[in-house]
Amino acid sequence: MEPKVNVGILWNKEITFLLDGEYVCDERKVSGEHTVSYKDNQILWNGQIYNELLFTPQTEQSTFILRDVVIGINFHWERKEEQRFQGDLKLIVANGMITAINLIGIEDYLTSVISSEMSATASAALLKSHAVISRSWLLAQIEKNKHIIEKKENYTAFTETEDEIIRWYDREDHTDFDVCADDHCQRYQGITRVSANVNVVRKAIEETRGLVLKYAGEICDTRFSKCCGGVVEEFQNCWEDIKHPYLSKLRDTENENDILDLTKEDKAARWIESRPAAFCNTQDKKILRQVLNNYDQETTDFYRWQVVYTQEELSALIYKRSGIDFGTIEELIPVERGASGRLIKLKIVGSKKTMTIGKELEIRRILSESHLYSSAFTIKKHDGSFILRGAGWGHGVGLCQIGAAVMGEKGYTFDRILLHYYRGASLEKLY
Ligand SMILES: [Zn+2]
Ligand SMILES: [Zn+2]
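A: This is the predicted complex of the input protein with zinc ion.
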């Protein structure tokens, strides 16, 4: 049977929502606008106190609207808006606030997630590949969460010593629901925006219903990113130290198995500063537009890019983004690179302090106002400036979206695309 997913949408001391259609809660019929507020670790609604509330729709047409949902958390475009959802609305108490959770069938959830992620021009092969990996990823996260909660494991994503900070960002911080609605997990806005592509997306979801990737009996943790840069990175270089055989390094080309050892500094530099053939080596706007909904036309080259900072700019940026006073930045020194040439550790040498940081997302976060495209870059100093030349966009693990879009255009079917990126995995229908 199709599982349901608990999506954490928002948390606040007070939440206002509109039940547009008939719902049942606490064995009563309800509809219209309501406000709940937090009181003494419980929920106050209509003058009564509850531990939790569940609003279940009574018709196909019943939807609910949540007011003041914060989107783009910590991004420059952060703002509030109202959002509309199908399925159940569940309200619980956590961390001194009320959390609004949307309980929804996985296939409806995927339709929403993929139609906001992909554009209407995406090929059927690309959409079907995406349906399978979004479904697999989600089910793998739900399994992993269960496991962590059952075993009461102390999950840490952080090590810090006097001269080293190594951290990674994953989604184990959710215990009251399976995934949140922000980019941290997968961006989900319910049915707020009916995208132009919703019908083609629905078709791709239906045609792959219940289909997931499995490896050694387990659902694959199917990571994906925008552009690998020519070589796909390995899981343990971006997150916790576990080797997933189906998330191993590979060349993003057909029939090419000899991969340079990009963990070696000289080879990585040569690789990043050249433009080797790869599926994702494209500047074709028609293809980029498939993967990038709301595509910003100015950037066309994600395969190879360059960012230049003056020493002053870089020093101010690193101070602002890390909160650590390094003084004037004198050197950026690669310490450790992964299979795709992405930096896992980078030493920052300042006039006041020297420290090593990692892993890839932390490096990208500290070296840019938002996020540097990737951590696969070389550093050159020239005339008092730092020139960063880089490859790819995102962590580079698993499916490369731009590469997959190119494969789709070349006529590869969705299963061949998937088995190119997730080596040794197999497709299985769960329901
Ligand atoms: Zn999340
Ligand atoms: Zn690629």
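Residues 227-228, 252, 278-280, 400, 403 surround zinc ion (ligand 2) (CB under 6 Å). The first helix runs from residue 106 to 117.
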